[in-house]
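In the previous lecture we treated proteins in isolation. Real proteins rarely work alone, and many bind small molecules. This record shows how such a complex is specified: first the sequence, then the SMILES for NAP.
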Amino acid sequence: MRIARIHALGEPESLVIEDVEAPVPGPGQLLVEVSACAVNFADSLILQGKYQAKPELPFGPGAEICGRIIELGPEVSGFEAGQRVIGLPGINGYAEQALISAASAVPVPEGMSDEIAASFPIAYGTSHLALGHKAHLKPGETLVVHGAAGGVGLTAVEIGKALGARVIATASTDEKLAIAKAHGADEGINSTTEDLRVRIKELTNGRGANVIYDPVGGEVFNASLRAIDFEGRILVIGFAGGTIPHIPANIVMVKNIDILGLNWGSYQTQRPEVLRASFRQLIDWYLEGKIKPYVSKVFSLEDTAQAIRHVMDRKAEGKVVVKP
Ligand SMILES: NC(=O)c1ccc[n+]([C@@H]2O[C@H](COP(=O)([O-])OP(=O)(O)OC[C@H]3O[C@@H](n4cnc5c(N)ncnc54)[C@H](OP(=O)(O)O)[C@@H]3O)[C@@H](O)[C@H]2O)c1
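The predicted 3D structure, ligand included, written as tokens:
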């Protein structure tokens, strides 16, 4: 089977498409014929050795997939060959076949396309746990979402609305803001032409936002610290801008705010029951039409490097998917 993988850490262009032996499912695993693998910003980090997980070489990126079960490993029950599932291989997902743990596999809901199924768990799961489980976002509160047209950002806009908040989207272009508004954002701030802190204050009668969702970091995080209301919550989601912010504890104390970190992946091992409940809620919202996953671009396996580069270059809107 073919797989996109690297033999030395580097840029996405180091990926090579190789023919390798199909993997054999071990205890608790499923072998799946991959129909779609979603691109995550983290793919670019893991390739460069900058991610928390540092797999042994050679390996391929590709953390979440949709596909049909080919074979069940030992000690697996409740699944059958041919079934369509969403799965979390963690790595080696840009391939014709991949291994997933049966514990993380979920049957694809009726009517959900391969592209949407593959790109559903991480982006929606992250925003749902962050806004609900962590920040306890309440109806009527004001939520600011940075990078609002990106993979996780767009899901935060939709989930913010589903939880009853007023949502202010920030993005670097008017085109991206239009996408965030089409997915429910009430207002938009162009982070290239407008001052984030000034505009957030203006849109909240000088008080600031109750909750700020930040997958960007750097100066965007610093602006958030100054545009958060008394008892507000800032969610640290990621550092797509490349700079990890340092938190001044005096501002946290003086403004009575909470800085909340959220790493979705850790919930797979630490609190799987929280993840399962979150996933059930998200599927219900999907079936009710409350959230509308957006896949803007589909690439072939041969073009996996271009797909990851597209996300790194800040060109992606919603999710980007590779179809082997
Ligand atoms: N904590 C978790 O569990 C978790 C889960 C998933 C993702 N993440 C993290 O969240 C971040 C976003 O992930 P994603 O998959 O949503 O990526 P994405 O689709 O590329 O979105 C990132 C957004 O960040 C903004 N951005 C600002 N400066 C950027 C730069 N120099 N390069 C690229 N983007 C930049 C872009 O919006 P504008 O152009 O509008 O500014 C872009 O839309 C990443 O750091 C990722 O690792 C964390």
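Summary for your notes: Residues 40-42, 122, 126, 147, 149-153, 171-172, 176, 191, 215-216, 237-242, 262-265, 311, 314, 316 surround NAP (CB under 6 Å). The chain has a mean pLDDT of 97.
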